[in-house]
Amino acid sequence: MKPILQLRMGQQLTLTPQLRQAIRLLQMSTMELDTEINVALESNPLLEREEDAEPLPGGENVAAAEANEGAGGEERSEIVESSDNADGSESTELVDSLLDYEPDWDHEISSGSSSSGDSEERLETLQGAATEDLHDHLLWQLALSPLSPRDCAIGRALIDAIGDDGYLQVDLHEVQSTLLPEIEANLDEIQAVLHQIQHFDPLGVGARSLSECLGVQLRALEDDSPTKALALKLVQHHLEDLARLGTAKLAQQLKLDPDLVNAAVALLKRMDPKPGAQVSAEQVEYVSPDAYVFRHGGVWRVSLAAGCLPKLGINRQYEAMIGVAARGDATYLRGQLQEARWLIRSLETRADTILRVADCIVRQQSAFLEHGPEAMRPLVLREVAEELELHESTISRVTTRKYLHTPRGTFEFKHFFSSGVSTVDGGSASSTAIQAMIKRLIDAEAPRKPLSDARLADLLQAEGITVARRTVAKYREAMNIPSSNERQRVS
What we know:
Blueprint: H1 17-26, H2 30-43, E1 47-49, H3 59-67, H4 76-81, E2 97-99, H5 104-110, H6 116-130, H7 134-144, H8 149-160, H9 172-179, H10 187-198, H11 210-219, H12 226-237, H13 239-245, H14 247-254, H15 258-269, E3 285-287, E4 291-296, E5 299-304, E6 312-314, H16 316-321, H17 327-364, H18 366-371, H19 381-388, H20 392-399, E7 403-406, E8 409-412, E9 420-422, E10 428-430, H21 431-443, H22 453-462, H23 469-478, H24 484-487
Helix pairs in contact: 1-17, 7-8, 8-10, 11-12, 12-13, 12-15, 13-14, 14-15, 19-20, 22-23
């Protein structure tokens, strides 16, 4: 075959370095952005912080505006126009809120030794402990236990079948089949190893039922009182009766002293029904708002947080050296100057885009700010993209790990987006609003007669929301609300 030359025409989209940088910065969280800027400041001599720049309207202005309308409320257009010279403080906003929980180890970090080496080592140790999940915790104990290699293999199979709540999710026959063909274990062997695991930390893990879980914890108590004996009896034989009848009627039915039954129930309440929840791989996540919502002149306004647009500028001394420096040094300084200008421009674009998206969200969801979650309207990325004349992918980047501080709490931008469900009158309600309605109904239910998913669907139908029972179950599970059987409580 002979080599030949061919001419082909085509189109190809190429992202410039500036555009790549802008996209990368846009999808960063506030804390990631702060880290990125610190790295840039250390590596680029042409880049510096401008301590004397005017502060961008942020949390301190919002607080004043909430206390006295008119003190901190600029028009959105005025905020955008001032973004060229307006910046935040050197560090990001201090933690505004915590997601889920704040473990004790975080306090130890903040009040630890002043020694840099010791502090870093302590931080790594604590962070490693925080990322350990339940299965790792159990496998670590299994490796330290005096079990034979055969029993350890059985133990690993059992631990793999334990859910995050600490309960064994399969029966022993299924565990038996997973061990084949390497290990042919009978059920008694598996049961014996499971008994060992149930006494690992947390106590009661690996139980197959609530009764077994509470029973393991009760038997471990160094207490031979009648209260413990009755508590064990209730757990083994009368747990459902206790939930159905209540303490007083159960005492009457069993012909027992009501005070003794009350004491036994009080002991049961000290036990942990979900021991697996004690060990979590979830790390504490700090949230720094990117924008604030406040009312001014009867209208909801938005302003950027102080750390959303850091105060950066060009170092004029190094810039002046470009004209007198040697050729190689001048080339280096020109490159660093160009990168510094790109970064500053990208940060301004990022801040302006976040402000525009936040402002649009507030306009679309003003009913939520006025009346709460049940007033949340359906909203999709496409609506915001069309209104702002941006691409949906840009809106997606802006709404990820960006947080909006409102009088009703701090929420991720994504919280305000949800699909819609048709209503009886031809309108639509957002899934967020429906979840809020379901939670309201469940919070008001009778403890002994919790509402089933079918009943919740009927009540929503009466309020004009047409949803199927399985949809109610999906929303309930998304809010981590147990089923009606599990919600049944003792009075």
